[in-house]
Amino acid sequence: MIQAFGLSKAYHLGPAANAAIRAFDGLELAGAALAMALAFRDLRKALADPLRTLCLLWAVFGLTLAEFVWTDCYATGRILSPLLLFLFLRSFAGGEKLGRLPLAMVVPRVSLEITPQVVGVLRGVLQI
Is residue 3 included in any domain, yes or no? Predict the structure, then answer.
């Protein structure tokens, strides 16, 4: 099962870095699963609240996605970002504070992936 979700993927770094990246991969997948679980919670209330309905529909869409979405850190964060943001917004609009957690679990892995590009851009900008 771990191999099916890309958690056994070997990166071309040292063993400690590989372990850290795999841990962030697992955290990201757990955040996506938590987001879907929160969206499916209290189905009866979904029709009364438009934001809850949006979360539910996006979670249903997320269940239909192909395997590559779950194994690529960019794809998971990018495709499920509306669900993550809707849950985040709902948590500030009187929803449960647990809705903030899925976004906080997905962001570290994507941030880890884009950090080298951000550093390169900042170096280029600061040299001007």
Answer: no
Q: How many CB atoms lie within 10 A of CB 116?
A: 9
pLDDT in tens, 25-60: 899 999 999 999 999 987 888 888 888 898 899 999
Query: What is the distance between the alpha carbons of residues 5 and 66, in angstroms, rounded to a whole number?
Result: 11
Helix axes 15-40, 81-92, angle to 10 degrees: 60
Buried b vs exposed e over 47-80: b needs ≥16 C-beta within 10 Å? eebeebebbbebbeebeeeeeebbbebeebbebb
Is the pTM here over 0.85, yes or no? no
Q: What are phi and psi of 3, to 5 degrees?
A: -65, -35
In the numeric block, the tokens 């958690």 are attached to 7
Structural domains of the chain, count: 1
* Residue 27 domain boundaries: 15-126
In sequence order, what E strands does 28-125 have? none
Residue 8 falls within a domain, yes or no?
Answer: no
